[in-house]
């Protein structure tokens, strides 16, 4: 989560909503890390989690990330939560809960749908206050 | 939808699950078209809709696709449905319904979540039998 927080801080410095994500393998080795790049890429789908998932799989011979963990500073949105399922990620760990945009414990609750073929283990609230403070400070400074 | 079907057929010829998508602007001009590239890119998130949305926005000065239509041969999954919302697409039109993997009229029903900030108009069942037949024939041939 420390690496994900660093990615989130770097994103904030670029003027991006400060969310960071890291994919680690079963041994804990970092496969990929990314921050939000929505503004830089002019791509509303360029969330940190999507970028980290794609980069992690691209760096391996396997398109699936079985046994791997996606760690994000914010509860993934429905798009990223479903993407993590498609990549067959083993575990999704996140920091701050996101009642307004989250898709794991809120909103569409992607993994609760019976049609979700692969449901990862979910751990929320890691370094919750640090992750949330980053977002809160970013938006407070913009108001 | 004819273009989306052509993309789906081309995807099948490449060994991909035959799904195609097209993004058109308010005047009906084609901004982007894509077929499924999950196998070619070794990327489980490389659905036709995601690729078409990203390409359509990349080709314009605006990262949003307001007033545009995403036409797909299959009901978008939760990932693509949410992405279409993030791109602020005006309308989502699709062919075959997907009770097993769809995220619009089935499963997570992304647009039904009160937290979904932008809900496009949805039209399902266009050229439904042609779109469904492509998928059915593809999977029948693989069994």
From TrEMBL, chains A, B:
Active-site positions on this chain: 49
Gene Ontology terms for molecular function: tRNA-specific adenosine-34 deaminase activity; zinc ion binding
Domain CMP/dCMP-type deaminase residue range list: 1-105
CDD domains linked to this entry: nucleoside_deaminase (cd01285)
SUPFAM superfamilies reported for this sequence: Cytidine deaminase-like
This enzyme's EC code(s): 3.5.4.33
A UniProt-annotated Pfam family: dCMP_cyt_deam_1
UniProt catalytic activity: adenosine(34) in tRNA + H2O + H(+) = inosine(34) in tRNA + NH4(+)
GO biological process: tRNA wobble adenosine to inosine editing
Protein name as catalogued: tRNA-specific adenosine deaminase
Organism from which the protein derives: Dankookia rubra
